[in-house]
Amino acid sequence: MTDARYIDFISAYCDRWCERCAFTERCSLFAVQCAMAMCDNDDAEAMELAVGPAPSDDGEAADTEGSRWIEELNGIPPPTPAEMAEHDRQRAERDARVDGTAIVQTARAYTVLAARWLRAESDALKQRAPADVREALEIVEWDHFLITVKLRRALHGVDEAAHGKDLDDDFVEQDVNGTAKLSLLCIERSERAWQVIARWSDNEFAAIFADQLAQLAREVDAEFPQARAFLRPGLDEPT
User: Fold this and answer.
1) Structural contact between residues 178 and 13, judged by C-beta atoms closer than 8 angstroms
2) Exposed, middle or buried: residue 182 (CB in 10 Å: 0-12, 13-18, 19+)?
3) Residue 1: its pLDDT value, please?
4) Phi, psi of 126 (to 5 degrees)
5) Which pLDDT does position 52 carry in this prediction?
6) Would you state the pLDDT for residue 101?
7) How far apart are the C-alpha atoms of 35 and 6, rounded to whole Å?
8) What is the per-residue pLDDT for 162?
9) What string of DSSP letters covers the chain?
10) pLDDT of 31-64, one tens digit each?
11) Residues 6+ apart with CB under 8 A from 56
12) What is the pLDDT at residue 7?
């Protein structure tokens, strides 16, 4: 990204809760999403509106870092069927290893059980709950799927590096730590929210979910000891 309006990679490590974000004007992903709505989902028109013009009609791309990168990608031949099959095999094996970790098993159990609880209880509680409890319910509703998704992404990066995939080591380390930090932030935010719900409703499951997330945070800290030190672009940097 070369547009000075936007912070590079800010959307890579955010919770995608755009309506609560103070950085939407600095986020190219948010700009593209808004442009897509304005342009009736016309991809080319939306991209030009959000981040600048596409290559000209005669096929000449603008002389920018992004356009040169696209040209390089276009010069790479497509994978053969055998290469695609090998990629799919490796991906399936990686998924199995990641899904077998204690972190993902804990996170997935939380996601499933929290989703069931929210479907059964959330709407009724919101009708009679005070503002702080409604806020807490909105937080756990937003986070309960995101936590597992982001932890799987972080662990995928660890697995790719461990099994010799040809990746930029610095990028993998940064992406793993950034994604793990986002996961920790969502875990701890939801833990506090469940505690609010538990105190108000005296619901034993809310307290159990809070304890489950506290344990998950400890496991994530042990697996990603550098995650908390990661500075997410824009979000953790001085304004």
Assistant:
1) yes
2) buried
3) 47
4) -60, -30
5) 55
6) 97
7) 15
8) 85
9) ---TTS-TTGGGGS---GGG-TTGGG-HHHHHHHHHHHTTT-HHHHHHHHH-----TTSPPPSSHHHHHHHHHHTSPPPPHHHHHHHHHHHHHHHHHHHTSHHHHHHHHHHHHHHHHHHHHHHHHHHH--HHHHHHHHHHHHHHHHHHHHHHHHHHHHHHHHTT----HHHHHHHHHHHHHHHHHHHHHHHHHHHHHHHHH--HHHHHHHHHHHHHHHHHHHH-TTGGG---TTTSS--
10) 888 877 776 655 555 445 545 555 454 555 455 5
11) 62
12) 93
C-alpha to C-alpha distance for 186 and 180, rounded to whole angstroms: 10
Instruction: Report which of 214, 226, 208 is spatially closest to residue 114, judged by C-alpha positions.
Output: 208
Backbone angles phi, psi at 233, to 5 degrees: -55, 125
Spell out the domain ranges in the chain. Answer: 10-74, 83-224
The residues of the chain scoring below 70 in pLDDT are 1-2, 39-74, 164-168, 239
Output the CA–CA distances (angstroms, integers) from residue 102 to 24, 80, 109, 175, 218, in the order listed: 35, 36, 11, 21, 12
225: which 2 tokens? 């000891």
Give the pair of three-digit tokens for residue 200: 């108000």
